[in-house]
Here is the input.
Amino acid sequence: MAVASRDIEVGYELDGVKKQAVIQLMGSRHWGRLNPIHFDPVTAANHGMRAPIATGMMSGAYLAETCVNFFGKTFFENAIMEGKFVKPIYAGEIITTHGVVRERTVDGDRVRLKVELWAENEAGEVKTVAWVTADVK
Amino acid sequence: MNKGKTMSEHVVAHDDLQPMSKTQVEQLEVFLAKLDADHGSMWDIQEGTELTWEMRVSPELVVLYADGVEDYNPWYEAWPLGPGESPFGTAIAPPLLVPYWQNWFHRQGMGRSEVGGVATGWRTEFFAPVMVGTTVRYHGKLTKKYVKRGRQYTEREFTVEDADTGKLLVKHTAIALSNFAPLDGSDQPADEEPADGSR
Here is the structure.
């Protein structure tokens, strides 16, 4: 499943995933339904938003899925993911993830990659950014 | 039907984005009223407050999460029949499922529904996969509160370990705004104010 390998080069572009933040998923019980800015247009408007916004962990999960597809099992062991929700993802937006290998570190037998990731909408607006560091086998 | 605040010239309604029956709208309004009545801010939690709790990472919880983010990786599937299969043996939880449930700290743990709050950033260290069926023990602490550009930020730090063995699985830091709207009540469009917590 994983495509990352020990000889992968800096500049390698990861395969992204494409998802739509549909209101039915934004209102999933998993997200608690305790914060209606995530599923109710009226509450969102009362908080200054033009539409309900996806919980941040949705776009975080899209980026994590991109990493699992790339790193495979090593993403679950001794990996670090750090991210920021730069702009809200509004209901209905179609989000595509991207990633580029920015660093490759060799320490003995260990090869570790640092990857820059971002999630953007169809207009190219960056919504969520992250950096991930993980080993490759 | 059940109009809300006007955004531009459009009057916003609960059913703008999906079909809802009159009964469903009425049920939603009752639910929202209850949330409003019970709403408490994370900002009111004292800095340094700590909490420990346990949660079972059940196959059903994993499927609910996977459906919510449309991630159908077979490594996560142990429902309806387990134990599933992954490179680690049996099924594992998606990487950010356990970190996501840090929200138990302020929701069920502190009774804060946090209406209007938004996450702005996170940092997660993955030490080992969380096997489906594991009971994990969270320890959380509200470590920082600060105001930045007129908005209230909180930071919470968590460790998650296997409740049976004590093995460290995840460390997670969650950063959030207590309310998306600025404290001064300005009507500045939210899009003009990136909520990244760092600038």
Notes: Residues 189-199 of chain B have pLDDT under 50 and may be disordered. The longest strand of chain B covers residues 135-148. Helices of chain B lie at 22-38, 59-69, 97-100.
